[in-house]
Amino acid sequence: MLPDIRKDVFRGLSSPVYRSYHDEYDDKDSSLKRSSSPLSNFLGILRLPRRHTAVAALNTLLLILFFYNLPSIPTFLRSGPSAMAKSNALFSSNPAELTMLPSERQARLIEKARNVSASSPFPKKIWQTWKTIALPDDDNYKFTSSWQKKNPTHEYELLTDATAERYVIDNFNETDPYIVELYRTFPKRILAADLLRYLVVYRSGGLYTDLDTECKMPIDRWMDESLTHLPGVEASDINVVIGMELDVLNRTRWSDDWVRNCGFSQRIQFIQWTIWARPGHEILRRMITSVQETVRADIALTSTKTISALRYTPNDILDRTGPWRWTRVIQRYVDEIEGRTVSIEEFGDIRGARRFGDVLFLSGGRWSPGLAHSGSDQTDSFLAHHFRGSWKGDK
Ligand SMILES: *[C@@H]1O[C@H](CO)[C@@H](O)[C@H](O)[C@H]1NC(C)=O
Ligand SMILES: *[C@@H]1O[C@H](CO)[C@@H](O)[C@H](O)[C@H]1NC(C)=O
Ligand SMILES: *[C@@H]1O[C@H](CO)[C@@H](O)[C@H](O)[C@H]1NC(C)=O
Q1: What are the structural domains of the chain?
Q2: Which range among 37-46, 75-84, 145-154, 363-372 shows the weakest confidence by mean pLDDT?
Q3: At what angle do helices 50-69 and 38-46 cross, to 10 degrees?
């Protein structure tokens, strides 16, 4: 029980943003499954197991299709699968990358990072999401106005259910209609809320931050404050800023059971309740691609091959769209842009900030102050996250 509460609190699951207010999605197709089709009635009369009949019919069909297409199969093989893939999709893996040498991959990421850096500064824009414009009547949201108050020169946008869907359609339907479909039909809205932040930061850049966060220091000071710890690093070297959510590398102090019971998959974890980046960053593109591919694979394994048939446990959610996958994607990116394997120990005990490639990692205290376990104190915090109470005093 307790670990569940911690996990939920930690993840902001108790935030109404994440509450499944579209629970009806869960059972959307159950009526379909119950209704029996004329075909199944017919098969029932014949007393043939439906599955066997279907397999036999499918095989026959495939055989007919095979012979029918025989003359054109060699051409199909020559043109290859890439000719069939949609070439303009933003969120797809590049098969060529699989065969690249690490040094080639590194060179490519460095070039991409340079392009991102040259094409835009960090946009002065703050993004938050909520289902309607009327904010929830809850003490935890009284902090929202701090973002506008402390950052008067930054544009502020609250995406509601309606405007968020419009945003996703306008920005991605042309290139990646499947992303739009996922966003609209995810059976749990937490999945959509996760996906939305990656889409917004990828396309528009700026600061995404959950509704229950409070600005403690004007955003315009964040970069300089952080770079005082890194002599020689310039703001122009940095394209994305990532906060530490967890840093419990000491196995004596934190057992494997502790880590698992608290809902973590590794001894370090990166924050995804706040993300700050220039637009077009490869980490966001990879994250969205990875979410899309894994959900597609999950759907293919369901009985009805439909998104509404997905049944994700809380850990599945952490893994599919949440911080587990986010952390892995970032680690992989850092390995590639550094051209070596960066061990998780290198993310431990960050004081102020640390840089890998074009990614700036902030100490826990900056974006996640007051976590006793990760040793993050509250001095010099950039922001506070307010679903934190039950973590306090938690050793
Ligand atoms: C970087 O930008 C240039 C100019 O737009 C482009 O030709 C090149 O393909 C980009 N590099 C990468 C790795 O995306
Ligand atoms: C997305 O694009 C497709 C094809 O271009 C179009 O048929 C569809 O209506 C669009 N969807 C939305 C929600 O605009
Ligand atoms: C790990 O934790 C133990 C127990 O709290 C402590 O005695 C030890 O010094 C710690 N090790 C390091 C490297 O901090």
Answers
A1: 2-68 (no CATH), 80-393 (3.90.550)
A2: 75-84
A3: 110
